[in-house]
Amino acid sequence: MDFFHYQDNQLMAESVSVRRLAEQFGTPAYIYSRATLERHWHAFDDALGQHPHLICFAVKSNPNIAILNIMAKLGSGFDIVSQGELERVLAAGGDASKVVFSGVAKSVQEIRRALDVGIRCFNVESPAELYRINEVAGEMGKIAPISLRVNPDVDAHTHPYISTGLKQNKFGVSVDEAREVYRIAAELPHIVVTGMDCHIGSQLTELQPFLDATDRLIVLMEQLKQDGINIKHLDLGGGLGVTYTDENAPHPTEYAAALLAKLKDYTELEILLEPGRAITANAGILVTKVEYLKSNEALNFAIVDAGMNDMIRPALYQAYMNIIEVDRTLAREKRVYDVVGPICETSDFLGKQRELAIAQGDFIAQRSAGAYGASMASTYNSRPRAIEIMVDGDQAHLIKRRESFADLWRLESVLP
Ligand code: LLP
Q: Which domains does the chain have, with CATH numbers?
């Protein structure tokens, strides 16, 4: 459920007219709803009820500091994958002791900074990383808390580019190797084993793969017990899918209930989840202006001012996201359009074969754009990135200004 709806045929973000925002701030613009973000976070937090747990928002889905600050105020933890994300969490008032650090390529500098600020846990992805963390912690006179990312080899049934829990993926340590790696970890002097984690993929629309992965981790936890290694938290990653069009993604409540049923004998085991998309995707829209309409023998094109540099998901994953009119009071003829951007690439489209009632100069909105939209944006074709606006009830706040053209080359220099 989200707080974007039509009122008198005008698209509203909570109580604010999207058309008014587009006219006031310009396009392309991401517009987020605070109430939706909070509702989605609470859906996870409430679903795990009294069982010890921590929801660690996956920063990569949307790292704007206004969003991180809202999460921090809810008491959220954070899943990060770089020092940049760590610095954002800290800048936004997040609590370092609720941060878990995932990612296959943690550098010495990143490990040092994470130890310095006292993160909750490193989600370790290889034996080599384990040795590196032990060494850095040793130099700093610290003990590093770790979890091992176990690759359970289950098929997430999602797009191959966002599937991460199969043997052929680069992530984690295979379930067969993990017992031995834990044994090594337990003996390293500057490491303390605290958890076990996995993340099998993103945009999962079935619960079974999560449950299969959990089963495999439970078997491993039991084996570790025999080795005298006690796992205190189980982190099942992110990945819960959302409804972009007609997907029937499970609700966090169903997911949590199924997990709690599996883990009913583990009342002390803290459950961590790392949802990103399920919190942010439907809490945001991308608003764009129709610059031109154009037709040839085969197709009608709506050429808009947002491109694949602003929203790369359709180009990269053939993602389907709904596109709707912002103002439905206007008398327009309905036609089927390919909605394309200004970038000089054929893959530059927001959606194909969409029925829309639009004219030149109108605004349209791509829905479900709050996750992996702004966070994957680039300035390709030297286009300043989209602004970001947060609506909170009847108030709107500009949370990312438009870059100037000079910003585009601010870090560059010509030869002397
Ligand atoms: N935890 C880890 C370790 C992850 O790698 C990810 C996402 C998450 C949590 C959050 O997953 P979520 O709940 O958002 O599904 N750019 C792609 C998605 C890539 C996801 C990468 N990892 C897209 O636009 O579909």
A: 4-32+281-408 (2.40.37.10), 34-279 (3.20.20.10)
